[in-house]
Task: structure prediction
Amino acid sequence: MADSPASPAKILVVDDNEQNRALARLTLEEEGYEVVLATGGEEGIRAFEEHAPDCVLLDVRMPGTDGFAVCARIRAMPGGAHVPVVFFTALRDVDTFDAALRAGGDDFLTKPVRPTELVLRVQAALKLRRLDETNREYYDLVRRQRDDLMRLELQKERLMAFVVHDLKNPVSTVDLHAQLLMRDKEAPERVREAASVIRDEMRALMRLILNLLDISKSEEGRLAISPADVDVKALVAGTFEALSVRAKAKAITLESDVRVDSVRGDLDLLRRVVENLLDNALRHAPDGSSVRVALARSDGGVEIRVSDRGAGVPKELRESIFERFVQVESGYGAATRAGRGLGLAFCRLAVEAHGGRIWVEDGAPGAVFCVRLPDVG
Result:
């Protein structure tokens, strides 16, 4: 809750996006804050003069006067030097972060902003504003350390993006040569089998690379779909072929029950969703068992269900399993559903980009990963 219910703190929200303003207002008013909205930079400056807010939430990219210019002008105004300014932006990079600090920003949030995180950052900014001079020295030290850590994190993300992007070509080249060896009739059988294993591993590595790239695109608001009519039976058959070596290595039978001819969506993203869910199922299915992919119409949409008979996912962890780098243990000494923690995160982002949702059910035994896509075809 706001620090003083009798005199709630006043928060100025400056953003040209109506949905962002509405979310911030609803979130903060529920916590007892008084919220003032501004639709652009110049309007935000006038609102600051008129309302003297206790904290400013400021979008970076706005037409006309951008967030950096607004912050610099607020800092030069009477009473503006010590008012906390929290920037939020879809641009998660070192240059934007450094520009926010140079402009006089106190904190930095990346979109999409989660309501809980927004409230916590506002509460922290308001508390820090009241520090006396002795404590402020410690605050300045902690803030510099925090800024250095944030800068290192952004630099690491940029380096990872460069490395991942540059890995695509050599991985594709290795995959191509593995295919050539597999088709060489004069090559010994053991060579062709080794080439098949190499190609399977290259496909897994390429899935990981593409997952990383698309997760990065989603964080920057650039993950878009190119909808078309997708042949569902061909899509499932293609994923089975792509993962046949992995299934054969564990003597796992791939089963399908496809009761839909087509679905409207992005062919590449949907193919990779099914591949990632199937790969996840194969990793956790017991040797000699089966993995099943089923598609049918349900509740005005199309539902995809990928089930295995391995260690299930505890009910209390069925949301967190879709977070990045999460490895979920079944607990109580049971088996672990572990992995790189990227495939399922990608699946959620890709499904949500289609306007659908993804969840986990108990397979009794095993787990059933379910995807529901809206029927827009």
About this structure: The chain has a mean pLDDT of 83. The chain has three domains: 10-130, 161-219, 228-374.
